[in-house]
Amino acid sequence: MNLEKVIFGFFIVLALTLNFAFFVGDMANPLYHNTFILFAALIVSLITTILKFGDSSHMGAIFFATSLVADIQLLVAAIIWGWAAHISLAGVTPAAMVTVVSVSGGALLANIVSVVLLVAETLSIRR
Amino acid sequence: MSKTNIYYVLLKRLRVPLITLILIYAVSMVGFVLIPGRDNEGNVWMMSYFHAFYFVSYMASTIGFGEIPYAFTDAQRMWTTVTIYASVIGWLYSIGSLLSVIQDPAIYRLRLESKFRTKIKLLHEPFYLVCGYGDTSARLVQALGQEGIRTVVLDKDEHRINELELRDPLLGRPLGLAADASKPAILEVAGVLNIYCKGVIALTDSDQANLLIALSTELFKPHLRLIARAESPEIVSSISSFGGNEVISPFELFADRLELVLTKPSHYLLSEWLTGIPNQTLLDPSFPKAGAWILIGYGRFGRAVYRRLHAAGIAVQVIDQHTDLQDAPSNSLIGYQANLESLQLAGIDSAVGLIAATSDDATNLSILMTARELRPELFMVARQNQQDNSPIFERAHFQLTMNRGNVLAQKVFSLLRTPLTRDFLRLAQDENKAWVDQLLSRIIGITQDKLPYLWETKLTPRYSPAVYSACAAGQRVPLKYVIANPSQRQQTLPIIPLLLKRVDTLLLMPDGETLLQPGDRILMCAPHEAYEQMQWATQNQKVLHYLLTGEEWVSSRLLRRLLSSR
User: Fold this and answer.
1) How far apart are CA B93 and CA B105, in angstroms?
2) I need a labelling partner for B61 at 20 to 30 A (CA). Which of A73, B123, B182, B223 fits?
3) What pLDDT does B325 receive?
4) Interior CA angle at B77 toward B72 and B82, to 5°?
């Protein structure tokens, strides 16, 4: 058992599950989407990215890229939400909420790719 | 060393500090979002993530704008106290690790190496790779720099490489890396495979390392020029056994010169003048009388000297303090200290010269000074081991001082810059004294009291386009016109053509009527000003036309046709 692999596997799967937890539910309704979960998903995704810092292997580079995509999308989702809640005069409208959730859906896709890669890598090594 | 990108290493080391910072920020923010605050009217007010991030950002960086948008409740203040300490510690830790990563010697070396690698890649001019930066290399690099030839220097010792930084940048400061040149990977980093690398010069202190450098160079690039220094005969023969390597043994080299001084003084002077570093003042030559010699120190250098002098039929009395010398000549004073008594035993009163050849400078100096008290007219040869002792050796004015650094640097410099010099001196070796003396007086005649400047004129489109195209077009180009004064063709510039090399034939002292052919290489000797004037003929078609025909060049084709039809 490789501790580094455990930690990385944990964070990458956690990023996916948190992201999913935020994403599911009525897209336009803020009740289905919790700010804490979005925050947690963003933090975990950032940590996943940093865990791949300086990994010069091919697989490492791909993981770095996909988790970077997830970071950016979650960050954009958080910024849109913050904008809607604090700056825009209309407040958190269903339209704004739909944008936030669909952008986080993009991050979900990136996280799914990461996990698929992780599974593929694990299967191909067989050790 | 593998081709590690230093940024990967840096990022890898920054993982933990960055994650720590993110976690501290996350926990602090969540705390502020959860703890209820109150607005100015006393209503419960929950901080949003946006406000929490804003507050934590300015608090953690100790900017501290205060409690905004509303004054904090006690619960919020308590949490703020906790987070202030946590975030300050987090930042200190992260910045501390970042600084320590940057200052880490391993990272520092990687950074230097990666900078060096980039510089080598950007080097788009011919250069020589010099391995080992000692006295010899320092002189060599300096002399090559003055000629505008770039060098790349490798040395194990970081201090020596740092010395490179102090050199005059106008002389093309050499690129240097502190690394072990005997490792093939290092040679590769230093650009041995680069197309601009003209040759490798192995001058490290260790014969073994020089052999390894020679081997790796041969395997990396089979036809690359390699000049190595080696002291033990076994290594000399193994380095010269493969490829076209040139091996120089400083002891043998100096012993050769000493033999030349004693047997053929004029030849010695000629080779000194032609291989010296240009523009130095010519020294008054002094030569020993015939007679018996005393040699102190029968080590590697002493043996090399003895062998030659003995072969030349010169009587040599050896003194050595070591008692375990098996191969010393039978009448030697073995086990004697070098002092007044042993000098007298060895017959200093009837000797003509004294060679102090021990590996200790103090011994060499003291015995020569003792002998000078007895017989000031003796011809004295000193072996100087330490470069630092140069000032005293110079002041002592011995007739000949063997300084390894100088001897080697001169030799390598002349091999690199004018390879034909070697061929010339070999041919001159067979000429008689009268021939050499005549040449010496001609050289003095043109250079006054400076060492002459030597160069090779190559008849190729690149080096002498004008002469090349004239020859290639079938024009008759006698040598005398190429070295004529570009503004007055009846006069000849003060240039002595020493040797002409055409394919495999060597022509010693070619005369003015020799017709030049494309591909010829001519070794010339002159004051530096004459070299510059001669460039007109080799580079400029119009000037060459005037020199060859005595007529001005007519550039317009129409005019030329009109004039010729008349």
Assistant:
1) 20
2) A73
3) 74
4) 150
Q: What pLDDT sits at residue B312?
A: 85
Res B278: pLDDT = 66
pLDDT tens readout for residues B335-358: 777 788 888 888 888 888 899 988
pTM over 0.80: no
Domain limits, chain A: 3-125
The answer to whether the Cβ–Cβ distance between B49 and A50 falls below 8 Å is no
Determine the average pLDDT of the residues in B227-231: 89
Q: Does position B1 have pLDDT exceeding 50, yes or no?
A: no
**What angle is formed at CA B151 by the lines to CA B147 and CA B156, rounded to 5 degrees?**
140
- CATH 1.10.287.70, domain B6-103, yes or no: yes
Instruction: Kindly determine whether residue A43 and residue B8, on different chains, have CB atoms separated by under 8 Å.
Output: no
Closest-CA distance, A42 to chain B, in angstroms, reads: 10
pLDDT at B440: 87
The CATH superfamily holding the domain B451-563 is Regulator of K+ conductance, C-terminal domain (3.30.70.1450)
Q: Which pLDDT tens digit goes with each residue over A99-123? A: 999 999 999 999 999 999 999 888 8
SS3 of residue B293 by DSSP: strand
pLDDT greater than 60 at residue B4? no
Contact between chains at A82 and B50 (C-beta distance less than 8 A): yes
Residue of B5, B23, B49 with shortest CB distance to A39: B49
What ipTM did this prediction achieve?
0.87
CB contact under 8 A, B19 and A51: yes
A49 min Cα distance to partner chain B (Å): 9
CA distances from B496 to A8, B21, B422, B465, B480 (A): 77, 76, 17, 21, 10
Question: Looking at domain B121-248, which of 3.40.50.720, 3.30.70.1530, 3.40.47.10, 3.40.1180.10 is its CATH number?
Answer: 3.40.50.720
The pLDDT value recorded for residue B566 is 53
Chain B positions with Cβ closer than 8 Å to A: 4-5, 7-15, 18-19, 22-23, 26, 29-30, 33, 48-50
β-sheet bridge partners, residue B500: B507, B522
Q: Which of A45, A46, A92 to mutate to test the interface with B (most CBs of B within 10 A)?
A: A46
Side-chain half-sphere CA neighbours of B115 within 13 A: 10
Residues of chain B with CATH 3.30.70.1450: 451-563
Domain with CATH 1.10.287.70 in chain B: 6-103
B7/A54 CB distance under 8 A: yes
